[in-house]
Design brief:
This protein is an alpha+beta fold. Helices cover 47% and strands 15% of the residues. A hairpin with a 6-residue loop joins strand 6 and strand 7. The longest helix has 66 residues. The two termini are 70 Å apart. This is C-type lectin domain-containing protein.
Amino acid sequence: MSFVVQFTLLVVVIKHVSGQTCLSNESKDDFDKSRKALTDVQENIGKVLNKLENDNKKTLNMFKETLNTMGQKIKKLDTDFKVLGKDFRKTKWHKYNGHCYYYGSYATDWFTAERKCREIGGYIVKIDDKEENSNIASNRANSGSHHWIGLTDLKEGVWRWSYDQSKAVFTTWYPGHGSKGTSSNCVMLHQGRTDWFDYDCHYKGARYICESNFCF
């Protein structure tokens, strides 16, 4: 029975009782039942209110703990970002068009080059157009060395960039290259030139170029 119904019943009973010179047993029973029902409703409401207060305290404490944890994580990210920035600048990246490029100082195979680029916070270079290719080629500290770039055709004949697996739109092949067969699945920027040639990925005679999407 709802609170409103119980309260209405009590009012009716009280009016009925007040109109009599004495309280009959039947009226007294109705009165007692109504009073008990209202008392039960009061107790239940009290329990609900107490539960809501406790639940709200728990929820509030949970939010406070979450905010505190988030604050600590943000501070750590800020610290890590500053450290990363210092390391990034030490590595001597070359900046161009909002991206940064790093030229590996020693020769290795393509797979090691790809891993080294990831270890320093970038990826083996992806070249999107002629202007970017020319800029990268002109900033090589050692133009007498070949440099690995991030283009492969591990699925023969389909050249994709390892960074995002997108198909190459721009290419600039050295004459006779670009389809040298299953033993030449990785690409190098030709020494002293701006064109590319495909070669054995395990060849350890080329340096490498890394790229990052942000600069400090």
